[in-house]
């Protein structure tokens, strides 16, 4: 027996060759047409791959493992999707049937009568194919056999009815899967009543849904018939919401309706107990709402405040007459009682917070009004000349002691009257310094401590400074005060430096061998070359030397022998006393030096603040001056532009005159 020649598909497939590019990506090339494609040609695809090409799923490979991507939903999975599993089963079943027919044909075995094709010359209808995959069920007497008419079914509903008849005849119910059912009916002629697999699966799903609906309807009818009988039985038997099917079996084992409803009695019992549980829950909810409402009204009439703790509040509630008169309140859950108390306590806290906030707001408002009134009082004193930059608080206090605007500010939060008074005096002092700085900056000569008012008038006249006599006197006082402070500071620093130089000379004299009884003139050749000696005036030199000589004489009077313990003790006490005096004196000097340094640092900080304030005022003044010049230049430019627009001829003439 000769082998069959390859078909056209096999010949076409043999022309395609698989290759890989430099990146390792696979492509196919046709040997005759030289066409190259990235996707696998249809001639090389399996029946399942061709069927999958009509679905939104695409197969790709990552390494050696395939994965699937849905082009519509963009879903990506590693395993074969359910849709493709069903499709593969259908394709495999069809392929299996095809191979079986080819095998029978090749071996000469009898094959089942095939369904008629559309171009068949046979005008009759084929009988139903009983199949041999699984035993078939005999059709019911009322079912009229259905066959595929000549030329096929005219419409889809008739074809769907024939397919569903096939499913019914073969005994396929709602428990069957699509794959199992297809294997059973795939060889039956009625399997081809519907053309596509999608139509067949839709009819299969509709058939199973119809079976489920019919069985559910029959079950519902039986339950509707048994419901009133069993409900009466449950009511008479005292069924509670917590009873189970096991308990009901013991109670109603001899009842005929209970025995007949073996499949439905569990459902009806659950339905009955669920209704009882719902009624009981509704009753509990109603009682709970009643208790909460009654307790909420009661707790507002009791002596419970925001500071009352829970234990005390619970005792107050239990002792009340209204609580004892309502029996349902006594059965109330402790958590519900605590929830009512907690809600009431929160309401009290909110009221307390709101009242406290209101009182704080009123207190701040009163304090602000009191400060504004006291500031107005200080302005009145300043305008009346009773408050100046040199005023003292002890002088101002008797003037305002009985003023209501002063007494209303006492004891309120915020700035005190003394602080506001200091602010006002500081403002006046700063204003006076600014005015004095303007006058001093405009003068060509420097003002000294010895400068008089007449000399200042002459300097102002020479510099063209116009100011009132009061402003000049004020400026002179401010400048004199500043110069006096600077002079006093310089004197203090010079005195401190002098004391340090004296101490340095005393320390240096300790390293020079001097006779205790020798005088200053005798020791002068020994100490005249000391740097510490040269840094002092003669009076300070003598004072330092006298202190050192006195200390040497005291040491010389100390006994040479230590046998006379009494004299030694007295001498030791005297020396200790002298040392203590020296240490105390040195400590006083160090303390004075520390205080002087602290005052100096504080004055330096004050001067820095004054300089910063002066620089800020200068910047503001320069900024204002710059803005004024800019506005003036802008207005001049605008006027010039306006003049050009009004007289273009003159403008053009001016331009031509300046051209080269």
UniProtKB/TrEMBL annotation:
Give a GO biological-process term: mRNA cis splicing, via spliceosome
User: Where does this polypeptide localize?
Assistant: Nucleus
What Gene Ontology terms describe what this protein does at the molecular function level? RNA binding
Pfam families, sorted: FF
Keywords attached to this entry: mRNA processing, mRNA splicing, Nucleus, Repeat
InterPro entries reported for this sequence: FF_domain, FF_domain_sf, Prp40-like, WW_dom, WW_dom_sf
Q: What is this protein called?
A: Formin binding protein
List the biased-composition ranges (Basic and acidic residues): 555-641
Residues forming the FF domain are 366-427
* Entry's Gene Ontology cellular component terms: U1 snRNP; U2-type prespliceosome
Stored Gene3D superfamilies: 2.20.70.10, FF domain (1.10.10.440)
- CDD domains named in the record: WW
Segments forming domain WW? 10-43, 55-83
Q: Which organism is it from?
A: Cutaneotrichosporon spelunceum
Where are the stretches annotated Disordered?
100-153, 550-660
